[in-house]
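Weekend entry, working from home. Most of the wet-lab plans are on hold until the incubator is repaired, so I used the time to fold the two sequences that have been sitting in the queue since the last round of cloning. Logging both here for the record. First:
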Amino acid sequence: PRQSFVMVKGAARLLPAEEPPRAEPPPAGPPCQAPGQQEQHLHLMMQLLRPQDAIRLAVRLESARPRRVRYLLVVRPEEAGAEAETALLGVDFTHEGATHCTLGMVLPLWSDTQVFLDGDG
């Protein structure tokens, strides 16, 4: 299935199927980031998911390690009423041009879940 994203400054948001992609200026990525690198990262991260899952939001995080690239994903199945199956995923790339990624965290979001992110990033 085709998925459309809007990407702005290290964050990507899934567009609903009925909404056409908006014309946005290209994001001003860090100087070390090659053109299209964020799209490549999204493609690799989507390969980690089950076929019925979709990335609702992807945010690039600051990493404590200089070369490591980290993303926080909000993921849930595409079928209607699947909000109860939403999860946060932590995805790591060993460096900017890595050709594979690893899943470092899976946190299911239940109706009574409270998530607090701490730090200066």
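Second, folded right after the first finished:
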Amino acid sequence: MIVFISTGAVACVSDSYDIWKCCEKIWGEELRDAVIKRGKNGGTLLIRPDSGDPPSVVLKVDRDTQKCAYKCSYAVINGEGVDVYKQPISDPSKTSKKGRLALHHVNGTYVTLEGGRSDPKL
């Protein structure tokens, strides 16, 4: 019998022998429907390797791999608004949004609008 609470956060220490097989086969196939149901109920599943070399078995998920970071986009200096952004010459993919930003939900997806191009009603 499998008991799997469907809400809240749960952390599971997983397979001592093959963490990759455990994640792929057990969590990703055998328990997949339960994991998805848990996510739809606002639950979170955390899987922690039981052993192994951490740099080898733990994914190094960070703001670069997720393409997400909080950055300053607008400042007021001496009473005047100034757009703030970065545009690194060595990596154009890291160019940030500038100015006053607005987040909108449009056709089922989220869109960030720059530079005050927002409709305040939305």
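Plan for Monday: verify the second prediction. The helical segments are 19-30, 32-40, 54-57.
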